[in-house]
Specification:
The complex is a heterodimer of chains A (284) and B (361).
Chain A lengths: L1 H33 L3 E2 L5 E2 L5 H5 L3 H33 L3 H12 L6 H12 L4 H8 L13 H26 L2 H9 L4 H12 L1 H17 L2 H7 L6 H10 L4 H25 L9
Antiparallel strand pairs in A: 1-2
Helix pairs in contact in A: 1-13, 3-7, 3-10, 5-7, 5-11, 7-10, 7-11, 8-9, 10-13, 12-13
Chain B lengths: L5 E10 L2 E11 L4 E5 L6 H9 L6 E6 L2 E2 L10 E4 L11 H10 L5 H14 L15 H13 L5 E5 L7 H18 L2 E6 L2 H7 L2 E6 L2 E6 L1 H6 L4 H6 L4 E11 L2 E6 L2 E6 L8 E6 L5 E3 L9 E9 L4 E6 L5 E6 L11 E5 L5 E5 L8
Helix pairs in contact in B: 2-3, 2-4, 3-4
The chains are: A mainly alpha (284), B alpha+beta (361).
The complex binds adenosine-5'-triphosphate and magnesium ion.
Chain lengths: 284, 361
C-alpha cells in the first residue's frame, strides 16, 4: 500500500524538484552570493568579498526602517487576528452552504487587482474624498484630515491586502473544532470567556499560527503597499530592497537585505515547526 | 417520598417543524438510576440536552432540586454530563481534564490536587495523571470522562450512551463499575442507551420511549412482566403478539378473536369490542397437535434453530408473521411443516389495550 501511494509522489517529485532548483534555489543562491560582493561605481557588481553590506544595515537609518517594518507587520497581524477571528467564527457557525458563499464574498475583492484596491482606498482618504467629506458633513471634524501617505494609510493598505488570508486558515480550523468540547467546557461550569481561552483558542491554534504566518511574513516584505499608500514617504524593508535593486542600483546591499528577510521568514517557520508538525500547517 | 430531584413538566421540543419531544412529564427521584431506553431518534439525547442546558425546551418546565432551570445557562446548572464521544480536551493531560471543573471555579490549587487524586482513585486511573487522552484506550478515556464529570459533586449525572463505543466485554465490566460508583456516591444517574439488556441490568427504573413519548416508566421487572403498550412488549425482550377484538367475556376470562384464530386472557378492565394485544413470551408459549379448549390459533412449524442458550422454533402464522417458541431442550416430537396449535396459561399472558390501526401492524 505504502509503495503504491508513494509511486505517484515519487513520479511528480522529480519534475517538482527540478522546478524548485531552477526557479527558487538558484536565484536564492545568486542573491546570497552577491550579498557578499561589492558595488562598482556604475551600479554593477564587483566580485570583491565583503561583509559591509551586512554591517551597513546596522546604521540607525536602516535599523529604524527595519524596526518600523516589524512594528507595522506586527500591528497588521494583531488586527487581522482580532478582525479575522470573530469573522471566521461567525462564518463557521453558519451552515456549510452559507459559509461557502460568505467565504466567496471575503475572497471576491481579492481577485481584483490589489493595486486597484489600494488606489481606491487612497481616493477615499483624499482631502476631498468620501471619508473627509462625510466626517465634515457630520461635523465630527472641522478641517479635512491629512491622511494620505502616512504610516496609518500604509497600515490600512497592509490590512486590505492581508485580511482574507487571515480569515481562511482561521475558518478552516474553527470549522473543524469539535463542538462537543465547547459543550463539555460549559457543562463543567466554565463561563464563555473561560471556554474561549481554555478550549477554543488552544483547539484552533493551528489556524491562529497559520494566520500569523500568512499575514506577518508577507506584511514584513511588501514593497508596493508602502509605495502606493506611503507615496514614497514611508520606507519599509520591502521598499528598501526594491529601491536598492531598481533605483539606487546597489544590488549587493539590496541582496543582503533580501537575505535578512529570508532569514526572518525561515526563523518564523522554524519556530512554528518546533511547535507543530509541518503537515498541520493550515493554509487551506 | 421526598421531592424529585429532576422534575420535567409538560415539556415540548420542536426542531423547526419536527415535534421531537411531546408533552413530556418525568419525575426523577434522588439517588435513583433512571434509564431512557428507546430506538434511535426517539428523543433520548434531546431530553438529556434540555436538562443539561444545551437545548431549550420549546415550552414546559424543567426543575432541578426544586429550582426552575429553563433560563439558566449550562454552566450555571448543577448537573454534569458524560458524553458518548467522551469529549475530553485533547490539549490537556488527564490531570488537567479532571481538574477542569474546579479550575474554572477558581478552587485553590491544593484542594484541586486533593480532589483529582480522589477521583483518579475512584475510577482506578492512578498514575495516568500526565497522559494525554489520545494515548489512552476507549475504556480509560471513558473513566476520565466520568471522573471529570464527577469532580464537581453533581447532584445529577447525565450519561448519553457512555459505553456505546466500547466492545462487549469491556461494556459489561464498565456496566458493573458504573453501577457500583452510582451506589457508592449515591448520585442520581440519568442514563441513555438503546441496549435493553444494559438498561435491564443497571436501572432502578426504565423509561421506554418511542417518537418523543414515554410509553412506559417502571422498574425493569414490571416492564418485562407487564408491558403497557404493544411497542414496549415488542421492544423489551422477545414477545409473541396476537392482536384482535375481545368477542366474549365469561368468568373473568376474555376471548380475543385474532386473524390467526382465538386466544384467551384475563378480562381485567377489557370490554367486549375492545382492541387487545395478547402478549406471550416465547419461553411460556405452549403448543400441541390438537386445539386446546378456548384456543384456535395455529401455524406451521417453519424452522428450528439453536441460538446459543435456547432452541428456538419458528411457527409460521402467515406470510409475514412468525411466532417464536424458546425451549432449553430440543423437542423431537415435531417436524418442519407440522401444524401446531398455540395456547398459554392465564398467568403467562399480558393483555394490552390497543387502537384499531394497530391490529394489522
Ligand atoms: N440539532 C437538531 N436539529 C434538528 N433536529 C434535531 C437536532 N437534534 C436532534 N434532532 C432530531 O430530533 C430527533 C431526536 O433526536 P435525538 O438525538 O434526541 O435521538 P436519540 O433518541 O438520542 O437517538 P440516538 O439513539 O440515535 O442517539 C431526531 O429525529 C433528530 O433528527
Ligand atoms: Mg442520542
Amino acid at each position: 500500500m505504502r509503495r503504491m501511494k508513494n509511486a505517484p509522489a515519487a513520479a511528480t517529485a522529480g519534475p517538482v524538484s527540478i522546478w524548485m532548483i531552477i526557479f527558487v534555489m538558484a536565484p536564492m543562491i545568486y542573491v546570497f552570493v552577491i550579498s557578499f560582493m561589492t558595488r562598482d561605481p556604475y551600479g554593477g557588481i564587483e566580485a570583491k568579498f565583503t561583509f559591509e553590506n551586512y554591517t551597513e544595515m546596522l546604521q540607525p537609518l536602516y535599523l529604524k526602517v527595519i524596526l518600523k517594518s516589524f512594528k507595522l507587520a506586527f500591528y497588521t497581524t494583531v488586527i487581522c487576528l482580532l478582525v479575522g477571528y470573530p469573522m471566521a467564527y461567525w462564518i463557521a457557525s453558519k451552515k456549510p452552504s452559507t459559509a461557502a458563499k460568505m467565504l466567496m464574498l471575503v475572497m471576491i475583492p481579492y481577485w481584483t487587482s490589489s493595486l486597484v484596491r489600494l488606489y481606491s482606498a487612497n481616493l477615499l482618504a483624499m482631502p476631498n474624498g468620501f471619508l473627509n467629506t462625510a466626517l465634515l458633513k457630520l461635523h465630527i471634524i472641522s478641517e479635512p484630515l491629512n491622511l494620505l501617505y502616512s504610516d496609518t494609510m500604509v497600515l490600512m493598505g497592509l490590512l486590505i491586502t492581508c485580511l482574507p488570508f487571515s480569515v481562511l486558515p482561521l475558518y478552516s480550523s474553527i470549522e473543524k473544532l469539535d463542538k462537543s468540547l465547547i459543550e463539555a467546557s460549559k457543562d463543567l461550569g466554565a463561563r464563555p470567556v473561560q471556554t474561549f481561552f481554555k478550549v477554543i483558542v488552544p483547539q484552533t491554534m493551528p489556524g491562529i499560527v497559520g494566520c500569523i504566518i500568512l499575514v506577518f511574513i508577507p506584511a514584513l516584505g511588501m514593497y508596493y503597499v508602502p509605495d502606493v499608500m506611503g507615496g514614497g514617504k514611508v520606507m519599509l524593508i520591502g521598499t528598501l530592497v526594491k529601491n536598492q535593486f531598481l533605483v539606487t542600483k546597489n544590488w549587493p546591499f539590496g541582496a543582503s537585505m533580501a537575505i535578512l528577510l529570508i532569514l526572518i521568514t525561515l526563523a518564523i517557520l522554524w519556530i512554528y515547526t518546533r511547535f507543530n508538525k509541518l503537515e498541520d500547517l493550515e493554509v487551506v | 417520598m421526598s421531592e424529585p430531584i429532576v422534575k420535567i413538566q409538560h415539556v415540548d421540543k420542536y426542531f423547526g417543524e419536527n415535534h421531537v419531544i411531546k408533552d413530556l412529564n418525568l419525575e426523577i427521584e434522588e439517588g435513583e438510576f433512571l434509564t431512557l431506553l428507546g430506538p434511535s431518534g426517539c428523543g433520548k439525547t434531546t431530553i438529556l440536552r434540555m436538562v443539561a442546558g444545551f437545548e431549550d425546551a420549546t415550552n414546559g418546565i424543567i426543575e432541578v432540586q426544586g429550582e426552575r432551570v429553563e433560563d439558566k445557562e449550562a454552566y450555571e446548572r448543577d448537573v454534569n454530563t458524560v458524553f458518548q464521544s467522551y469529549a475530553l480536551f485533547p490539549h490537556m493531560t488527564v490531570y488537567d481534564n479532571i481538574a477542569y471543573g474546579l479550575v474554572v471555579k477558581k478552587v485553590p490549587k491544593d484542594e484541586i490536587k486533593e480532589r483529582v487524586k480522589e477521583m483518579l482513585e475512584l475510577v482506578q486511573l492512578m498514575g495516568f495523571e500526565g497522559r494525554r487522552p489520545d494515548a489512552m484506550s476507549g475504556g480509560q478515556k471513558q473513566r476520565v470522562a466520568i471522573a471529570r464529570a464527577l469532580i464537581n459533586n453533581p447532584k445529577v449525572l447525565l450519561l448519553d450512551e457512555p459505553l456505546g463505543a466500547l466492545d462487549l466485554q469491556l461494556r459489561k465490566q464498565m456496566q458493573i463499575e458504573l453501577k457500583r460508583l452510582q451506589q457508592k456516591l449515591n448520585i442520581t444517574f440519568v442514563y441513555v442507551t438503546h441496549d435493553q439488556e444494559e438498561a435491564m441490568t443497571m436501572s432502578d427504573r426504565i423509561a421506554v420511549m418511542k417518537d418523543g413519548i414515554i410509553e412506559h416508566l417502571a422498574t425493569p421487572r414490571e416492564i418485562y412482566a407487564k408491558p403497557r403498550t404493544k411497542f414496549v412488549a415488542s421492544f423489551i425482550g422477545e414477545s409473541n403478539i396476537f392482536s384482535g377484538h375481545v368477542t366474549e367475556i365469561e368468568d373473568g376470562i376474555a376471548t380475543v378473536e385474532t386473524k390467526f384464530g382465538k386466544g384467551r386472557m384475563p378480562a381485567e378492565d377489557f370490554k367486549v369490542g375492545d382492541v387487545a394485544h395478547l402478549c406471550i413470551r416465547p419461553e411460556v408459549l405452549q403448543y400441541s397437535k390438537e386445539p386446546v379448549d378456548g384456543f384456535s390459533i395455529s401455524g406451521q412449524v417453519k424452522n428450528m434453530i439453536f441460538v446459543g442458550s435456547v432452541h428456538r422454533t419458528l411457527i409460521g402464522m402467515d406470510e409475514e408473521y412468525d411466532a417464536r417458541i424458546n425451549r432449553v431442550k430440543y423437542d423431537t416430537a415435531y417436524n418442519e411443516g407440522d401444524t401446531l396449535y398455540l395456547h398459554w396459561e392465564m398467568e403467562d399472558v399480558t393483555g394490552i389495550h390497543g387502537q384499531e390501526d394497530e391490529i394489522d401492524a
